[in-house]
Amino acid sequence: MNRPKPGLRPLTSDEPATEVEHHSRQAFDGGDGGGYDGPMDERLQNLEEFARDARQEFRTIDGHLQKLEDFAVEARQEFRGIDTRLSRIEVRLDQTASKDDLAYAINGVIKWMVGLAITLSVAAVTIMTFVLNNATPKATGSAPPAIFYVYPGQAPMPAVPVPK
């Protein structure tokens, strides 16, 4: 991206100067060569070309930056939507029973059903006992003795009939 252009290199004091470069330095340093410097035009042309390339690259970078800013705006809007949906899910989760809640409720119902069955069984046995004890009259004292009258002149009847 930032490659130096051919022919555009800085002069250092360690390098020997050519006659044109030496003349250019003297012209600017001493003022005897006037305002024109031949190699300066080439260097200026290279700098202008570099500036045009830099402007073009900056325009490209501006385009990419604009795309990134647009993407950031869209992402923020999507995140707001996700945040809204997430808050709705959290509210539902707060109102929804967990496995532990369901297990506790089921155990409570089972305990109540077993307790109710035992209570109803005990109540049924108690009512049946009360009804059966009070439905038949109770005997007062002992049963009256059985009296058998035997008249004289009658023969007792045999227990087994006599064959004829």
Layout of SSEs?
Blueprint: H1 19-30, H2 38-95, H3 99-135
- Between the first and last Cα atoms, what is the distance in angstroms? 150 Å
- Report on the biggest sheet: none
Order of H and E elements: HHH
Shape: rod-shaped
Helix share of residues?
55-70%
Query: How many distinct beta strands?
Result: 0
* Low-pLDDT residue intervals, each spanning 5 or more residues: 20-27
Class derived from helix and strand content: mainly alpha
Mean pLDDT: 78
What's the gyration radius in Å?
A: 62 Å
The share of residues in extended strands comes to under 5%
Q: How many helices?
A: 3
Give your account of this protein's structure.
The protein is mostly helical and 164 residues long. Helices cover 65% and strands 0% of the residues. It contains 3 helices and no strands. The protein has helices spanning 19-30, 38-95, 99-135. The longest helix is centred in the middle third of the chain and has 58 residues, at 38-95. It starts with 18 loop residues before the first helix and ends in a 29-residue tail after the last helix. Mean pLDDT is 78; it is low at 20-27.
List the keywords.
164 residues, mainly alpha
Summarize the structure.
This protein is mainly α. It has helices at 19-30, 38-95, 99-135. It starts with 18 loop residues before the first helix and ends in a 29-residue tail after the last helix.
